[in-house]
Amino acid sequence: VKYHVLIGDTHHEVDVVRNSGKWSVTVDDVTTQIDICDLADGQAYSLLLDDRSVDVGVEESGNRVSLLIAGRRYTTEVLGEREWLARSIEKTSGEREKGVRAVMTGIVRDVLVKPGDTVEAGQVVFILEAMKMENEVKCELAGTVKTVSAEIGSTVQLGDVIVELE
Amino acid sequence: MAPLRPIQKILVANRGEIAFRIMRTCREMGIRSVAVYSDADRSAVHVRAAYQAVRIGPEPSEESYLCIEAVLEAAKQSGADAIHPGFGFLSENAKFVRAVQDAGLIFIGPSAEAMEAMGDKIEARRRMIAAGVPVVPGLADPVESDEQLIEEARKIGYPVMIKASAGGGGKGIRIVHEEADVLAAAERASSEALTAFGNGAIYIEKYMEEPRHIEVQVFGDSQGNVIHLGERECSIQRRHQKVIEERPSTIVDDKLRTVMGASAVRAAQAIGYEGAGTLEFLVDRHKQHYMLEMNTRLQVEHPITELTSGLDLVRWQILVAQGEPLPLSQDQIEHRGHAIECRVYAEDADHGFLPATGRVGRLELPAGPGVRVDSGLFDGTEVGMHYDPMLAKICVLGADREQAIARMQRALTEVTITGVRTNLPFLRRVLDSEPFCSGNYDTGTIESRPEVFAPHVSERRERHVAMIAAVMAHVLRRRRGFVDRSAGDPAGLGAPFRPPSGGASTSWVDAFRPGEDA
User: Fold this and answer.
1) DSSP assignment, residue B325?
2) Cα distances (Å, whole numbers) of residue A47 to B48, B341, B411, B471
3) Do B467 and A41 lie within an 8 Å CB cutoff?
4) Chain A positions in Cβ-Cβ contact with residue B357 (cut-off 8 Å)
5) A5 to chain B: nearest residue by CA?
6) A129, A164, B133, B276: least buried by Cβ within 10 Å?
7) 10-residue mean pLDDT series, chain B (518 residues)
8) ipTM of the complex
9) Of B362, B416, B467, the CB nearest to A14
């Protein structure tokens, strides 16, 4: 099975084949035999890459696969062939984020814009508080504020769109 | 000497790792401990470590851990005769100290008067100048108007630091480099302080460049003895929040240690201090020290002092609270070796250090020679948005600094925490960095050299990561597809491995070692 792995801006094609109780994994023409032992119901594995021993904590969310190896975290995206193709087509049409989202779960302490305001890229648009720390949330793009969808004092979830631009 | 006021049962007015740490000493001393908990913490480590546990309210700390009435009611109900406040929450609240004493209980900490003298930073500054303790140049009184703020900032010269009068823990602090930003920064600092401490007063001082943040541990008793237990180097900070501490400091020699120790003892004596306290200093390039503030409680980073001195500071706090004299005199204090502490925060190190929430899935913590872990984590811990993001402290002791660094690098490779983003990758990067390894760093190093501490994957390691990511995704996707079928082993995984009973975790093999490029 062929996968496309995205790490930051780089892309690797990886071929995964089941082979007599182990896995044969090929990346950049180098094939490694991997032996896998599940340690914690799909959350942590012991791997032997040929004979190299690596413990891996795994978090999966959609196509996103985060690996925790020796205290470091590697965030990757693993796409199948079809998803990879779809992604390549999408990319050419190029749509950027028009909303400003909550960067964490927390309480809205202040909203510094109202509908109709023009904002510049990098401008602070609202203040979020969690764990007693206030964090300024900035917008990525310039534009005009269309809607503000959270009240001061309300609790918002990570990823909620708080301010919509047009 | 028999204690004047023997303590039989201590209520620990705190949660998580510090409550657990205090209870460990209680158990060693044959003292029973009482936990208090909010609805979010019924299954927390401190509840399970305690002899008794009392619910004190719902999840928000204002209605539970910060609620004086609820804590006192719990003490009464459980029959505690003393209260240990830990750090944070009510630990520096003089009103709480008085309420505890009015209820006929022993407060394990300084007097309300000593706390008040140091708790208000402006008042503390006056007292310290009077006692001959060096302080940082700045305005002694709270800022009263925008005009005054601008004028004073000009007088002191940029950069200036705006600080909440009642601040602590990096909250309510802003550094301003130019006049255009000063009013907005003051407003943020004030509003942050108002939310966190209920007091929005701010003051302004010179922001010192390239300073070291070095603190001195002091201890006083009811007989008027005050000694110091040497320094802790706390300059590795982010947003004024300490991340890594070590002792001894690479820039403190015996002479400076003696001078700073004397300043610290003088400061504590000036307010008749009893119990454990910490004097925070800035030390500049010329090895001049300036007092910042006194923390009138146990510090987060106290374990590194314990590791090199062999002492138990919580035990000392309890002895002093019982009316006993300090167990050792100044010339009996000896330190051996080098200790480092890393604080594990629920902060996404690779995405702007934003607070992270979630449920801990897989948890593995380090152990082995010279490693001490104080942790509030357990399998399934819910890390919510209401409490402090510090989850655990990993400390090591080595014969010298080089061994301590190697030991910490090793310890960090043994950690796995899934389900909640943490700053572990950042800790590893700092431990591997030139500024830390050379000992040549200051409080601005982390923020001024982001390229050194930014996430980075080498090309060779990247191929390994791609390979592992693909095979893991493949296995997980197959596993999900077949997981409900009992027939055979379609995913080819074999039976999940179970650690032997007793919950021993599998140990780390030396892959992805520090310095080794996978």
Assistant:
1) P
2) 34, 30, 20, 10
3) no
4) 104-105, 130, 158
5) B466
6) A164
7) 84 97 98 97 95 96 96 98 97 97 98 92 86 85 88 87 76 87 90 82 83 97 97 94 97 97 97 97 89 95 98 98 97 98 94 90 95 94 91 98 98 95 95 96 92 82 93 90 41 41 33 41
8) 0.72
9) B467
